[in-house]
Amino acid sequence: MASTTIAAARGNVEAALALQPDFALALNTLGVVLREEGRLDEAAKAFERAVVADPSYARPAYNLALARLMAGRFEEGWRLYDPEQHRIHAFRYGNDPGIACLVHEAFALWVLGYADQAHLSRDCAQLSGLTPSRLVAGTGA
Fold it and tell me: Dihedral sign, CA of 109, 111, 112, 115?
C-alpha cells in the first residue's frame, strides 16, 4: 500500500513539474518522495532546486539538511542550518529544526555503529546555547 501511495505521489508531482519546472512546492514534495524511496542524492538535488526556485520557502532547506544527515554527510547538513536565520521555524513547525536535526543525526550515527558520537549529538540537543553550527565551526559555545 505505501509503495502504491508513494508511486502515485511521484506521478502527481512529476505531472506538476512538467507544467511548471520551477514550482518549489512540487520540487520539495518530489524530494520527500525520493527520500522515502531511499534515493537520498536525488532527493537532495530536488531540495536544492526548490531552494533556488523560492529561497523564502524554508521547508526545502530543512529537508536538504535532513537528507544530508541521513546520507551521513553531517558537516554539510549542519552547515545548512543557521539558528539565527531559522529561529522562526520553531514557531512555524512546532520544533527547532536544529534540534530535530541533532536527533536525526544521533539516530543515523547510532544505526551506523557510532554510539559515542550518537550520544554526543543527543546530549547537544539537550544543552542550551550549544548549536550544531557552533560545533561544526569548532567554537563550542
Answer: positive
Q: Which long-range contacts (CB under 8 A, 24 or more apart) does 24-28 make?
A: 24/50, 24/51, 24/53, 24/54, 24/57, 24/60, 25/50, 25/57, 27/53, 27/60, 28/57, 28/59, 28/60, 28/63
- SS3 label, residue 123: helix
Low-confidence ranges of the chain (pLDDT < 50): 1, 128-135, 137-141
Q: What's the pTM value of the predicted model, to 2 decimals?
A: 0.63
**Which residues, 6 or more positions from 101, have their beta carbon under 8 angstroms from its beta carbon?**
65, 66, 69, 77, 78, 81, 132
